[in-house]
Amino acid sequence: MFRRLFAIFLVTLVPSAASAAAFENVSHGAIAGVEIGTTPVGDLLFGVIGGQASGVLMTHGGKWMHQWQGLVVGKGGKLAAAETYTTLLGGRAKIMAESGWRFQPDDPWSIYLGLRLGGDLQVMMPPGVGFSELNTLNNIDGVGNLNASGLLRLAVGSSFLQEDRAVLISVFLQGAARAGETYLPKRAFLDLGFSARIDFAKTFALTVDTLWGTSGERIDAAHATTDVTTHSLVDVDARKVFSNGMWLGGALVYGAEADVLQFQTASYKTRSAPTFSVTLLYGFPLGKQEAP
After folding, report:
1. What global pTM score does this model have?
2. Is residue 27 part of a domain?
């Protein structure tokens, strides 16, 4: 029953019943762009330049689906938390890799089980300021400072595969960890989420991830308090590849956090200002590219 309903739902995206043993949608090269957004510590405007590699690839006759994204960039711009804007310079390195098994590789659609690893490191500092001096400035945690995080994800869902397009819809459970900063403590989260991805071979990719998660209980023995953080995230990423191999990419991220602080006789719930950012990138390939 579910199989038939799912096939009907996707018929507009995958009109043919033919299966595909091989599929790829890959872009790699140099990028330049701009990032604009608002965060709990201020509004931001950054320029971005560096390199990116991203894509999806089917192997072993359609049994395995691999997807990845790698990013290494230099960044610089302004963080507007007060009337005197803060200049931040630095860079970011991000990597994500997921491999999944398609249980029915000979069918257009298949049950999917995948495992993902990811890591993100960003260092953005005011010129001439050391890490030990950040507590003398306005709070820049989450944007400036050293931001490091990692995740491990288990996903289960349905994969639809054709010669010129691929669709993946899944739910996932993941563990994520963030390093502490000047004011923010280190935290670990258990997240539950939903992910959808559609790729057209060598021309277009769209990914939507949404999640909700909660941290472990943090105990402050000195003040006899406990603190639990919940967070939510929506991440939309799109890429249009042209016939010459160049591409336009865009990403939209919305995130929010709330804390429950428990004292011996009372509890308080606080909610941080949301994070919202838009990134636009122009990419051009390095090396010879195959025509789509």
Report:
1. 0.85
2. no
